[in-house]
Amino acid sequence: MKYFEVDFTISPYSADASDVLAAMAGEAGFETFEETETGLKGYVQQSLFDVSVLKTALEDFPFEDTTISYDIREAEDRDWNEQWEQEGFEPIVISENLIIHDGRHLPDSTPDIAIEIDAKLAFGTGTHETTRMICSTLLELQPKGRVLDCGTGTGILSICALKLGAQEAIGYDIDEWSVDNARHNAVINQIDNRFTSLLGDASKLNKVEGTFDLVMANINRNILLNDMPQFVSKMNADATLILSGFYTDCNSRKRISSGLVLF
Questions:
Q1: What tens digit of pLDDT does each residue of 95-130 get?
Q2: How many helical (H) and strand (E) elements, i.e. helices and strands, does the chain have?
Q3: To the nearest whole number, what is the mean pLDDT of the chain?
Q4: Are the beta carbons of 199 and 179 closer than 8 angstroms?
Q5: How far apart are CA 250 and CA 180, in angstroms?
Q6: Which one of 152, 166, 179, 262 has the minimum C-beta count within 10 Å?
Q7: Alpha helices of the chain — where are they, by DSSP H?
């Protein structure tokens, strides 16, 4: 999966302008950002990047006397989780009943459910706030039946759902490294006989039979909006849909109805 790395310079710089810029750049497909001394460094999949949308958004930047310039380059094709692979990460306590850890750092206590993640060349170790929030929600839901994991990454959400009682999980991702890593983590957690990891985007669902009791998508706003019809087509009448990737306060969760949870 190829990315562009875009250096944004905000003049004059302010934290508020930086926050607004991140939200507006998300409209052009940007997935993640790093803060710099003069602005932001953003990352966007080359296949999803729409520079015209970015230009239009920045023309309407709402801060008077603030200018935004940017430089686009092809991002280094590197291991995005190099730190985790080399050093690992400390156990992530979702609750006293659920802990996520790697093979190097075992939890101090013995929870009811322990998820071991070996993150190799894939996104999703459980450290991101939205991942933790979804895992916490799964604890509340106690999922049963079939689960669909859209943009599965390391497979952490599927593994969590299966360990909580789901019968089967199918995940897909456009990143071949993620697909392989998710399969690897399924083996580590001994649920590989109930988990299928597919390479592709939402169009892959056209070849998946049946519907699901739970659909999870922790991606970004543009992809969520684009793929919503496919999600709905694969949901049972009383299925639950969990979405994450909108530019809202990540410390709040809003349950719109009995079947929809937004982050």
A1: 878 888 876 666 666 777 888 888 654 455 455 667
A2: 7, 14
A3: 82
A4: yes
A5: 29
A6: 262
A7: 15-26, 51-59, 82-87, 129-141, 156-163, 176-188, 221-233
